[in-house]
Prior knowledge:
By secondary structure, the protein is α+β, with helices and mostly antiparallel strands. The protein has one domain: Acid Proteases (Cathepsin D, subunit A, domain 1).
Amino acid sequence: xxxxxxxxxxxxxxxxxxxxxxxxxxxxxxxxxxxxxxxxxxxxxxxxxxxxxxxxxxxxxxxxxxxxxxxxxxxxxxxxxxxxxxxxxxxxxxxxxxxxxxxxxxxxxxxxxxxxxxxxxxxxxxxxxxxxxxxxxxxxxx
Length: 142
């Protein structure tokens, strides 16, 4: 079972944050490769594992940098808004230690945050998340 463990200086204050690389989905990569087009380089970004988030969310500018087209539309509720319309995109999340998960993610502003991605329960339901607060570590296994 592929996994990674991360230690954060103050896990309670900062949260379970991990550097991930966000990439186009494998189907999109195949289509680009077959068409002789360049494949956008993955974007490295801080992501927080959020058991309170139903879905995985990335900042809107990331999908623009990857030149992605939406695959769907969804309405979400946030702590400050309800019924917010957001586009969905097929992406790969590249975690440390070569742990790769493909998901349909939601693009949203995520402004004023120290992260650019929330890893939600749609990704977490594929694995095991272990949070060990007293030693400031967490592990995610798939």
